């Protein structure tokens, strides 16, 4: 893969990860009753947020790798 393809792939992964990372946050603000009364629901939304943040970091690292490796 070329460096530009790696950079684009990293950027796409980072952008797509904002949906699971930010979704529970928005749901928590707009509809607090969704997870406030359920421990399982709260843990599920926390897991979605953490996995989204982890995926965002992976996308950023892929993009950085594309900038560092120009071949």
Describe this protein's structure:
- The protein is mainly α and 71 residues long.
- The protein contains 3 helices and no strands.
- The longest helix has 30 residues, at 39-68.
- The protein is rod-shaped and about 55 Å long.
What integer value in Å does the Rg equal?
16 Å
SSE string:
HHH
What share of residues are in beta strands? under 5%
Structural class: mainly alpha
The termini sit apart by: 9 Å
The main pleated sheet reads as: none
Low-confidence parts lasting 5 or more residues at pLDDT below 50?
none
Q: Count the E strands.
A: 0
**Mean pLDDT over the full residue set:** 75
Please estimate the helix content. Answer: over 70%
Spatial shape: rod-shaped
Q: State the helix count.
A: 3
Short description, anyone?
With 71 residues, the protein is mostly helical. It has helices spanning 3-30, 33-36, 39-68.
Key words describing this protein structure:
71 residues, mainly alpha, rod-shaped
Q: How are the SSEs placed, and which strands pair?
A:
Blueprint: H1 3-30, H2 33-36, H3 39-68
